[in-house]
Write a structure and sequence with these properties.
The complex is a heterodimer of chains A (289) and B (294).
Chain A (H helix, E strand, L loop, with lengths): L2 H23 L5 H29 L10 H10 L1 H33 L4 H15 L7 H8 L3 H24 L4 H9 L4 H36 L8 H10 L3 H29 L4 H4 L4
Helix pairs in contact in A: 1-2, 3-11, 4-7, 4-9, 5-7, 6-7, 7-9, 9-11, 10-11
Chain B lengths: L1 H42 L6 H8 L10 H12 L10 H32 L1 H15 L7 H11 L4 H24 L4 H9 L4 H35 L9 H11 L2 H32 L5
Classes of the chains: A mainly alpha (289), B mainly alpha (294).
Organism (chain B): Shinella curvata
Subcellular location (chain B): Cell membrane
Keywords (chain B): Cell membrane, Membrane, Transmembrane, Transmembrane helix, Transport
Amino acid sequence: MNLSILLSAIVFWLAAWAFNEWLVRQRFLNPAANRAARIAVPLIFGATILVLWEGIVRGFNVPSVLLPPPSMIWARLISSVPTLWADFRQTFLKSVITGYALGCGLGFLVAILIDRSPFLQKGLLPLGNFVSALPVIGVAPIMVMWFGFDWQSKVAVVVIMTFFPMLVNTVSGLAATSHMERDLMRTYAADWFQTLVKLRLPAAWPFIFNALKINSTLALIGAIVAEFFGTPIVGMGFRISTEVGRMNVDMVWAEIAVAAVAGSAFYGAVALIERIVTFWHPSVRGGQA
Amino acid sequence: MGEASILRDRLLPIGTVVLALLALWYVFVVVLNAPFERDTAARAGTTISFAELLPKTMAQERPVLPAPHQVFAELWDTTVNKAITSKRSLVYHAWVTLSATLMGFGMGAVLGILLAIAIVHNRAMDRSLMPWVIASQTIPILAIAPMIIVVLNAVGISGLMPKALISTYLSFFPIVVGMVKGLRSPEQIQLDLMHTYNASATQTFWKLRWPSSMPYLFTSLKVAIAISLVGAIVGELPTGAVAGLGARLLAGSYYGQTVQIWAALFMAAAVAALLVIVVGFAHTLVLKRMGARA
């Protein structure tokens, strides 16, 4: 047990906490300083967690098989960039992106197709809602059996996982316009297509982006978990499950760090596009997306 | 009008879609399983007519896609015909998964609510914790599942607890987000009223914030219980297929027992539906006791 490291970590934690408490009570006259303080608070909190993690692991001499310190994970991350990049390409660029585009696209198209049939909507919507609550990830072994070990089976899992949230959200988004607005389009003698493009799709964007954001997380989870069921010797899920078996926990954490950064960046990109497309929405105009 | 509209608006459309899906399923059964039968026939040196092929595609032992009636026969066989304590019983496996789900869900709900209360009452917590709670939703937590299981096994914690912890981890995020929104949902005018009554923070919490957060709580509970089931199932994958629905899935995929996989999938779906319905029922009950209109 190394008391001095532990103590300095705890001191850092208390100091950062006090500084954060002080920071949230400040009212800066300069709006830029205000914004900087807003961003600084969560960053300091994140840094504190890392320091505390490092301090506890080193202070109590926790075996690195259980929990490696962040510095060790970082070293492993730097030293195995080629492996991580290969895994990232296999899982993220091939499986996730393809499956996400296909699944969201299909969900959107089906929603547009059933738009003119209230009967089909009434039949498909409750089913779509029901499927969203199911552990869809369970189809992974079946898809691996059908489409083989390579990325095609992962794409299939991702498509199935992302299809239903997109369908349900698009249908409810298309229904979001009020009678008044649709009547106005009627008085303009707009046909179904014009009403769709000029009124109902723009009104549906917030719903569609909601689904896109949910799906960005689901897609990554689906691809990684599907790799637990069988994969060629590359991929994030494969690496995680084999390195756990070999007790290389630092490699697992490095892979998780890559997955976390990729997932957050993916989500952030979708959120950014949302801000640009739905600039008129109250939640964006209020300054917080 | 009442009954007729339920028939017209719900049963008829949903029934039609379900029937269409079943019919589509049977078509795919024939299409996907036919090559195998043709192969066997070719190997035996005979050709097989479509009329002979059709029934055979629906009765294979390890079909590419099992027919619905095969899946339901397997379901019936493994739930009703086996003693529930037997390892061959699907009820036994479902119970293993369900207990981990409920335990994880319970811990996740308590943790999520406590965290939300802290966030609402402390500005520093709000500013520093909330962005991370949201960011953590974008991280594929399930990817950590195998490591949590193996590491906890190494420390000597095994069985129900590791799976429940994964469920906890997955289920507490939606509860935190929903509860923070719910606890903040009272309007300023209502808070001001509590202020004029000279109500303490505790009183404001119990008499205003807590009741008004209930609809938000139950909405996120529904999401949370669905994903804590997913967490429990995925948590069973790396333990070496001992017990539980996830283990059934993995064992089925190792040995090519497609019927078993599909039966486990349907069981998981039934459990998920049951859990969501129970939470929904509790929601209506609580709202009714609080005097909301039905």
